[in-house]
Amino acid sequence: MASPEPPASLATEFEMKVLFAASEAQPLIKTGGLADVAGSLPKALGRLGCDVRLILPAYPEALAKCDSLDQIASFPLPGYAEPVRLLEAVSREVSVPLYLVDAPRYFDRPGNPYLGPAGFDWPDNPDRFALFCRAIAAIALDKIDLGWRPRLVHGNDWQTGLVAPLLIDAPQRPATLFTIHNLAYQGLFDRWTFARLDLPRSLWSMQGLEFHEHLSFIKAGIAFSDLITTVSPTYAQEIRTPAFGYGLEGLLQSLGDRLVGLLNGVDYDLWDPATDPALVRHFDRFTFDQRKLNKLALQQEFDLPEDEQALLFGHIGRLVEQKGVDLILDVLPGILDRGGTQMLVLGSGDSELVRRLRTAADRYAGRLAIMIGYDERLAHRIEAGCDAFLMPSRFEPCGLNQMYSQRYGAVPIVRRTGGLADTVIEANEENLSRGRATGFLFDQANAHDLWLAVERAINLWKQRPDIWQQLAINGMAQDFSWQARAKQYLDLYRRAMGAPITNPITAAPSGVQGESSDFVTGFR
Ligand code: ADP
């Protein structure tokens, strides 16, 4: 007997073949929020019936986390001496089909996907990620006889920026959607690099990959993709302005409604205090009183006095200027000198910020604990144990930790920017009386404004613990799940498929095309 037809809506989704490309994905390899998204959005799309496949470079860390690896193709790429292998990988922790682009010369390196051991970018990063893009484009056009042709390629950040220009003129090309997770990282290289990468020379144009006489990977993704998204509505507005646009604001403005701001979601399979294996005690908003056991365990773990009454601040993140860690350092004396407060910081990054943190930890021994490094499970314990979470970012495309904090009952104190502005509801009188408030916001990226927000938090903690608890519980009740957002992505995929753009270089009025700076001659 013939098997029953799938429901109509699902059958439609089965037509939705998507190749999701990223340079990192949780739990295989992670440096930041991009990995959280690449690990969880494809899974959410898969649950909606979308045939989505994830593709990553074959870093050793990712290979080691796979249960099986099967070479399914080996193919040459223009500009590269050795053939590239495509591995079909299976990992218990990745629920969608997974491809790894194996080019040992470029990816068989330990540690961070972007940085060498001394903390500087690998000098051949453009070659590494141009290779990744070329492999994605070859797969997207089924040049390697995979027998599977995506209808859309979803690229993420500059490391996948060249995919769209490599596809733009191909007959029957798939649609392209490009997500900007952080415009500050652009993949900007000199024009000699462009020449070395053996890219079609026509792409060296003001309407193309050239950005002030440099090759810009992120501009490539923005200019050549059918649709462009970024990870919050506020950031989508901000990057259209000179203050956040890094010179790309004109291009971003010109996209009109082809640039969409869509908030990231939280993977509640991984981030749920009711089931999280990293916690000493599970809790939810109905058993909030159990939460304190996680706080006491955290204090014990870090040699802080086990004191339920002390207001424990937390911060987790990359120690970089963007995140406002210097502002936290500036307000530390204010926080810790007054007593009844503690602070815990987990992060890695800038050596000067690390030095300042270490000095502060010596000075405030027993009140400030720091952990320099990367520790996923500890991040979960901090979210579940601290009372307030500081995130004074100078800019924040979306930010995940403020959403994790809310889910885990830690009250966020954040700057009103990007996704922070879109996900935290200010604890003012009106929002408090309506039971909506979830945290504290401040406007300017300076220590004074941060301090005023921190002081409000300290006062509320001390004077109205009942309201504090309500704030935390309001946060826990927020729905940041991927489910609704993945549906919005599906809508955007359909929109991109229905409205392919033409090559912006050939589409530009003649005369404008000639304005790019002269190409270097004799570059080979
Ligand atoms: P970004 O992507 O700019 O780094 P996000 O807030 O979007 O910032 O995401 C950061 C992610 O990386 C979160 O999941 C956060 O918990 C995690 N993270 C950052 N630094 C560390 C660290 N040192 N240890 C553990 N997790 C970290």
Q: Which small-molecule species are bound to the chains here?
A: adenosine-5'-diphosphate
Rg (CA only): 24 Å
Number of strands: 18
Strand content: 15-25%
The major pleated sheet works out as:
9 strands, mixed
Please bin the fraction of helical residues.
25-40%
How far apart the termini lie comes to 64 Å
Low-confidence stretches: 1-11, 513-524
Q: What class do helices, strands and sheet pairing give?
A: alpha/beta
Q: On the 0-100 scale, what is the average pLDDT?
A: 94
The strand order across the widest sheet is 3-4-5-2-1-6-7-11-12
Number of helical regions: 22
Q: What is the general shape?
A: globular
Give a description of the structure.
The chain has 524 residues and is an alpha/beta fold. The chain is 38% helix and 18% strand. It is built from 22 helices and 18 strands. It has a nine-stranded mixed beta sheet with strand order 3-4-5-2-1-6-7-11-12, sandwiched between helices. Strand 14, helix 14 and strand 15 form a beta-alpha-beta unit. Helix 12 packs across helix 15 and helix 13 packs across helix 19. The chain is globular. Bound molecules: adenosine-5'-diphosphate. Adenosine-5'-diphosphate binds next to helix 2, strand 13, strand 14 and helix 15.
